[in-house]
Structure formats: C-alpha cells, structure tokens
Design a protein that fits this description.
Elements: H1 5-25, E1 30-34, H2 41-54, E2 61-65, E3 67-70, H3 80-87, E4 99-100, H4 108-124, E5 130-133, E6 155-158, H5 161-171, E7 180-183, H6 186-190, E8 195-199, H7 205-213, E9 231-235
Parallel strand pairs: 1-2, 1-5, 2-4, 5-8, 8-9
Antiparallel strand pairs: 3-7, 6-7
Helix pairs in contact: 1-2
The chain binds fructose -6-phosphate.
Length: 244
C-alpha cells in the first residue's frame, strides 16, 4: 500500500526496469504483459523517463497487451493500439514488430486462429516475465468478465454492462461502446511468472476487498490471483481502505 498512485507507479516501473536489465544481462529479451486504461499511465510515464534520463533500453523487449475492443480500428481514438503508441511505444526505443496487441480488425472467422497464435508466441518466448494488470469495478482482469473460467485462454469476450458503462465516457455514449473485445484469458495471465495488479482510488476499494479477502470465484475473476505463486497488488491508500 503506497501513499499515492505516483509513488506506487514509480515502484512498478522500477520493477519492470529491473526485469529488463536482468533478462538483457542474460542475453535474453524481456517479455512484458501490458495493460491499458487509466491505471498504468503513470507507470508508462515513469518508464519513458527512465528511458530518456537513465538510458533504459527497450531494444530487447517484447510486449503483449491484454486486450483490444472488437471491432476496433487501430487508429481510432479509443483503440488500445493507439493508446499504447501514445502512452509508451512512441517515446521509447522499442522495435514496433516486438509489440503485440490483440486484433480489433480481423474477421470473425479468423479470430480463433489469431488467439491460438497469440498464446503460442508467448509460449515460444518462454512465457511472460511480468504481467501488469488493472482491475474493473466488477472484478475483471484483462477483459475476463465475471463468469470467466480459470482455464480460459485468449478469446473473444462479450463485455459486461458495467464495463461498457465505465467506457461510455470515452466513446461519447453507451451505445457506441463495442459489445465485445479480444482478451487474454485467465489461464494466460496465471501463467505469467510475476503478476502485478494496480488499483488506485476509492472507486476500486470494494472490488479490491472482494478480490483479496473474498472467496476465489468466477464472479470476481481477479480473485483467481489468490492462487498465483508470485503476485502483488499495488494499491494506494484509497483503494486499500476497505481491507480488514
Ligand atoms: C485494460 C484492461 C482492463 C483495465 C480495467 C481498469 O487493458 O485490461 O482490465 O485494467 O478495466 O481500467 P482503469 O485502469 O481505466 O480503471
């Protein structure tokens, strides 16, 4: 539990930098699982700062994002492809071909092959060294909405009404929010060697309590993380305020 989101985000950025340096010292690429949304923005800002002022190199970094709305053009304002470019990729020395984000444009009949290949690419690299997560007010991680099973893999998911309502501001109105998204599965996330879930603000306090102190249940997909061997929840005082 950190004083505020800035302190917490700096600590997470330091952990990511350490992994990058450690893997690179071994002559291997660091494989990062990344999230979008408002929560990780300060982590990305700090990584950019570390790149610009401390020479942190992303030349040997490979990234996999959790999710993308479906359908969604990559240059649309709400696209997670665009988000990642604006918040991180455009400001560091990462190789564009090393940045993977679920498709928002492939036709439906090609999706299941895409999803299998997404998983296979991660596996071929030896898995994710770290997965960064936010959490939805309904307990989702990635876009694994309530009801998602512990063995779920990268797939097309129907978005929960809570998720669509929370995104309505970004899209101008609820009807404009896509009904579906392509997301990494719970199992894909659980296989990461390290998982760091960030949650900031009072509006996350209730779901944080449920995820950490409640029963492990498909009703709160983040509760599955209780079974991960190397997970940390990074909170500010507001999101931790309902923990006992
Ligand atoms: C984003 C993602 C989502 C968000 C969650 C919280 O890639 O997978 O699970 O992390 O909806 O969103 P914010 O951070 O905007 O509160």
């Amino acid at each position: 539990i950190y004083k505020d989101a800035s302190e917490a985000s700096k600590a997470v950025a330091q952990e990511i930098a350490k992994i990058i340096r450690h893997k690179n010292a071994l002559g291997k690429p660091a494989v990062l699982g990344l999230a979008t949304g408002s929560t990780p923005k300060k982590v990305y800002a700090e990584l950019i700062r570390l790149h610009k002022t401390e020479g942190l190199s992303f030349e040997n970094v490979i990234t996999f994002n959790l999710d993308e709305y479906y359908p969604m053009q990559p240059d649309a304002v709400q696209s997670y492809h665009r988000f990642m470019k604006e918040q991180l990729f455009n400001h560091i020395n990462i190789v564009p071909e090393n940045c993977h984000i679920p498709t928002g444009t492939l036709p439906l009949e090609k999706l299941s092959i895409f999803c299998k290949e997404y998983e296979a690419q991660i596996e071929e690299l030896g898995g994710l060294d770290i997965q960064i997560l936010g959490i939805g007010r309904n307990g989702h991680i990635g876009f694994n909405e309530p009801g998602s099973l512990v063995n779920s893999r990268t797939r097309l998911m129907t978005l929960d009404i809570t998720t669509r309502m929370d995104a309505a501001g970004d899209f101008g109105s609820l009807v404009k929010v896509p009904r579906r998204a392509v997301t990494m599965g719970v199992k894909s996330i659980m296989e990461a060697k390290r998982v760091v879930l960030l949650a900031f603000g009072e509006h996350k306090a209730k779901v944080i309590k449920e995820a950490i102190e409640g029963p492990v249940s498909e009703k709160i997909p983040a509760s599955y993380l209780q079974g991960h061997q190397n997970v940390r929840f990074i909170l500010d005082e507001a999101s931790a305020s309902e923990l006992s």
